[in-house]
Design goal:
Helix 3 packs across helix 4. It is flat, with a radius of gyration of 19 Å. The protein has one domain. By secondary structure, the protein is mainly alpha-helical. It is built from 5 helices and no strands.
C-alpha cells in the first residue's frame, strides 16, 4: 500500500503538541482531566444517543498531548478510518448499493427497537 500523507487535522494537532509542552503543571493536569471526561462521555455515547464516533477521538487527541498510548490509539483509529474510506471509494457500484441498503436496514432496526421500547 502506498504511503499516505498525514491528514491536515493531525498536522495541526502535532503543531499544537509542541506548544503544549511549554504549559505549566496545573494547566496540563486540567487538560488531562478534561480529556478523560471527554473520552468517558464518548464511551457513554456508545450506549446513549450521541456522536461517540466524534467525541472519543477528540478525547484521545486531548490525551495524546500527554500520553503516548493515546497517540498510538488515535493513530490506529485514523489509519483504520482512512482504510475504510479507501475501500468504500474503490468498491464497485453493487457493493456500494448493498452497503447502503445494509445501513438503512440497521437504522430501521434501531428505530423499530426504540419505538417498541417506548410503547
Amino acid at each position: 500500500m502506498a504511503e499516505r500523507t498525514q491528514p491536515r487535522i493531525l498536522q495541526k494537532l502535532e503543531a499544537r503538541r509542541e506548544s503544549y509542552k511549554e504549559k505549566g503543571r496545573i494547566y496540563r493536569a486540567a487538560w488531562v482531566l478534561a480529556g478523560v471526561i471527554v473520552v468517558l462521555a464518548g464511551i457513554a455515547m456508545i450506549v446513549f444517543p450521541g456522536p461517540a464516533v466524534v467525541v472519543i477521538p477528540l478525547g484521545l487527541a486531548m490525551l495524546s498531548f500527554e500520553f503516548a498510548w493515546a497517540q498510538r490509539l488515535l493513530d490506529r483509529g485514523v489509519d483504520g478510518g482512512l482504510e475504510v474510506k479507501e475501500r468504500i471509494v474503490a468498491a464497485d457500484r453493487r457493493s456500494q448499493v448493498l452497503g447502503g441498503i445494509a445501513v438503512l436496514a440497521a437504522v430501521a432496526a434501531v428505530v423499530a427497537v426504540a419505538v417498541a421500547v417506548l410503547l
